[in-house]
Amino acid sequence: QVQVTESGGGSVQAGGSLTLSCVASGRLFNMYSMAWFRQTPEKEREFVASIHSNGETIYYRDSVKGRFAISRDNAKNTVYLQMNSLKPEDTAVYYCYSIDISAWGQGTQVTVSL
């Protein structure tokens, strides 16, 4: 069974940056499209960004366009989420999701303070 593990969360001030990493086990990572979601206690889990297995088809939710960047390194079985110009409303638990096999990570907390 494929395991998905996030890392890189933490606490930053508004305007700061963080990079999240997600490692998926298995030899078929290069065939998986991957995504990042986030969730707060007040909201349902929401889509943040996704990247196709080819690394070229990328989508973002409108509120993070121009600030976040998703990328992948298939040689390392890793997908990244570079988050810049962070805002307090970006505070959430961020989850990595392997779309093709419906596998979720355990989440990593991102907290942005004023």
What does this structure look like?
32% of the residues are buried. The strands form two sheets. Strands 2, 4, 5, 6, 9, 10 and 11 form a seven-stranded mixed beta sheet that branches. A four-stranded antiparallel beta sheet has the order 1-3-8-7, with no helix packed on it. It contains no helices and eleven strands. With 114 residues, it is mainly β. Helix content is 0%, strand content 50%. The model has no long low-confidence stretch (mean pLDDT 96). The termini are far apart. A hairpin with a 6-residue loop joins strand 4 (34-39) and strand 5 (46-51).
Largest sheet, described in full?
Answer: 7 strands, mixed
Helix content: under 10%
Question: What are the segments in which pLDDT stays under 50 over at least 5 consecutive residues?
Answer: none
Shape: globular
Structural class: mainly beta
Mean pLDDT over all positions: 96
Radius of gyration: 13 Å
Could you tell me how far the N terminus lies from the C terminus, measured between alpha carbons in angstroms?
A: 41 Å
Beta percentage is over 45%
- Helix segment tally: 0
Annotation, overall tally of beta strands? 11
- H and E string: EEEEEEEEEEE
Map the helices and strands.
Blueprint: E1 4-7, E2 10-13, E3 18-24, E4 34-39, E5 46-51, E6 58-60, E7 68-73, E8 78-83, E9 92-98, E10 103-104, E11 108-113
